[in-house]
């Protein structure tokens, strides 16, 4: 079973997605284990503060290195003796606009690990010492900025989980195996208004699997 640990200051944001559809089924069937951690748990401040003003000035606040360091260490130590075996592999990932672009190849690579720990930034970012000394790598979802790392964590978790046996039910569902092609379903002809018809390709309704396969290769 692969384990995902997500460190965030807004743990409730993740609940609805993780408790629906494939992610919910995979968790209940123990194909994957997803644990969400509130970073404030590792604060040394009695108010649970985990951010501070940036050195050198500037707008906004920066997440501190201390709570993140303690969170990652605690999560790794929380693994059972069996999970901490010599062959067990853990990867700590920080989401950052300066990270490597995430793609299917990266998802397949990360699926080889037993545990992924995701650090979700917020506000004006994360103390750079997290990237240098705590995280194993930085990942970016694209050339744009989000308010935090929670959405990237969900995207990467699902993309990686799809490569784990049993997550999809049918391995043919992997786009790498089936290829990306247009899909159609009933009705065979849709009429959005009088005189307009949007038909599904006749070849897909023919029942001729060789012709269907050839059509899909061409499209």
Short description:
This protein is an alpha/beta fold.
Low-confidence stretches: none
The secondary-structure class comes to alpha/beta
CATH architectural group of the largest domain: 3-Layer(aba) Sandwich
Write the CATH fold name of the largest domain. Alpha/beta knot
The total number of structural domains is: 2
Strand content: 15-25%
In total, how many beta strands? 9
Structure notes:
There is one protein chain. With 219 residues, the chain is α/β, with parallel strands linked by helices. The protein has 8 helices and 9 strands. It folds into 2 domains: 2-171, 3-Layer(aba) Sandwich (Alpha/beta knot); 181-218. Strand 5, helix 4 (104-110) and strand 6 (115-119) form a beta-alpha-beta unit. Helix 3 (65-77) runs parallel beside helix 5 (128-134). The mean pLDDT is 92.
For the structure shown, list the relevant keywords.
Alpha/beta knot; two-stranded antiparallel ribbon; 8 helices; about 220 residues; single chain; about 30% helix; alpha/beta; 9 strands; 2 domains
